[in-house]
Amino acid sequence: MKTAKLITMGCKVNQYDTQSMRESLVRNGYTVVDEAQSADLYLINTCTVTNAADQKARQAIRRAIRQNPNADVLVTGCYAESDRKAIEKIPGVTYVFGNREKADFQTYLDKLHAETPLQIQPIQHDAIREHARFSSGVSNSGKRTRALIKVQDGCSAFCTYCIIPYVRGRMTSRPLLEIVDEAHRIADSGIKEIVITGVHLGAYGQDTDRDKDIADILERIHGIDGIERIRFSSIEPMYFPDILSERMSALPKCMPHFHLPIQSGADNVLRRMRRRYSTAQFAHLVETLRSRFTDDVGITTDIMVGFPSETETDFKDSLQFVKKIGFSQLHVFRYSPRKGTPAATYPDQVPPHVSAERSKVMIELGNQLNKSFRKRMLGKSKDVLVEESREGPENFPAGFTDNYIRVLVEVPETVINQIIQVKLTTLDDKFVYGIC
């Protein structure tokens, strides 16, 4: 019996891609094993959004090779696009292939199983002009409660700090009928929650004839029996018009949680980042979502510290804006120069010790806001989709509320993959606890 281990880094788009390649592995007779086990094949789907992501990718590759020096090690993803040669120099790596070649994953498996070893020549891409590609989709995510559907890939925004347009290609929308067909397959498998994912979800359809947009996807999936929850993985503020929130608010299956990457709460920094919105426009979007859904709506975000020329005043403005919005959760990261991006050549790069200190301050604020948001939910009853995973000192089953609070509740195994009403009772620094 052949075994495979899947290692995924970075965003939910990468997670979806791994699920698609997982199906090919299963069809080819592989059994997917967990992290602790050695495997005959390692598939490592990498991220390159920061220097730290590159380093983690190299560590994961070397760890896999140490675990089984005789294994086939296949490396793909954004780091494979940005620095293929660095990966190819690591002894023990079998194949390196980019994001667009994920759709041809079966070809790489065929090469591995050929009687005579075959070489695959790396494909050179024109990232600025070339569109992203899609696999045939996912029928079984390997999970029982939640599945991802990738509806769009690539990026044509070219924010000054970001390498993603160079490693994922132009913004490309997936045909609506393919998306709906995949959603039906997911519903048939018994999964109740779908997470819509992509690089620029709100821009869906803008690269085609513009007669379809992201709201059309939501409305079509909303009508599928068996699907009870729909979420966005992340949606950029500049691609979230009022009409989208209006149409979503009429769809009860759309959950009141939105991940809106702001990147900075200082207008000076947003302009240098080329983010195409102001803090006032962002605040208006959040106010609109809270008025159309509920004051309990979960608003999470990504925020960067240490962008070139970020002054102490800029950073304080960013802190103040984050407090004003009252995010339910922050993902804080330090600016990392990416070769080939405009910001990497900007003057006045912020010293590492300064960005490290700013990161600590922002993370602490994020922890305070998260605890405050969760505390405000105590005493309320929320619908929770119960998962298989068990967490916390009591090893209780876990699940998410509609507004994306992770709750632990003591319930029998029979309610896994069921939506139950839970009263939120207590919390600590890490967990919220509830009772039925």
Set out the fold topology.
Blueprint lengths: L1 E7 L3 H16 L2 E3 L8 E6 L4 H17 L4 E6 H5 L1 H5 L6 E2 L8 H9 L32 E5 L1 E2 L10 H5 L3 E2 L2 H13 L4 E5 L16 H9 L6 E4 L9 H8 L7 E3 L7 H7 L5 H14 L5 E8 L6 H14 L3 E6 L17 H25 L4 E11 L4 E6 L4 E4 L9 E9 L4 E4 L1
Parallel strand pairs: 1-2, 1-3, 3-4, 4-5, 6-9, 9-10, 11-12, 12-13, 16-18
Antiparallel strand pairs: 7-8, 14-15, 14-17, 15-16, 17-18
Helix pairs in contact: 7-8, 9-11, 12-13
What does this structure look like?
- With 436 residues, the protein is of the alpha/beta class.
- The chain has 13 helices and 18 strands.
- Strands 2-1-3-4-5 form a five-stranded parallel beta sheet, sandwiched between helices. It has a five-stranded mixed β-barrel with strand order 14-15-16-18-17.
- Strand 15 (396-401) and strand 16 form a beta hairpin.
- Helix 9 runs parallel beside helix 11.
- The chain starts with a strand and ends with a strand.
- 42% of the residues are buried.
Short account of what is shown:
By secondary structure, this protein is of the alpha/beta class. The protein has helices at about 10-25, 50-65, 80, 85-90, 105-115, 165-170, 175-190, 215-220, 240-250, 265-275, 280-290, 310-325, 350-375, and strands at about 1-10, 30, 40-45, 70-75, 95, 145-150, 150-155, 170-175, 195, 230, 255-260, 300-305, 330-335, 380-390, 395-400, 405-410, 420-425, 430-435. The mean pLDDT is about 90.
Whole-angstrom Rg = 22 Å
Number of helices: 13
- As laid out across the biggest beta sheet, the strand order is 2-1-3-4-5
Q: Biggest β-sheet, characterized? A: 5 strands, parallel
Beta-strand percent range: 15-25%
Count of DSSP E strands?
Answer: 18
Q: What distance separates the N and C termini?
A: 43 Å
Mean pLDDT: 92
Shape: globular
Q: Which spans have pLDDT < 50 for at least 5 consecutive residues?
A: none
Helix/strand-derived class? alpha/beta
Helical proportion?
A: 25-40%
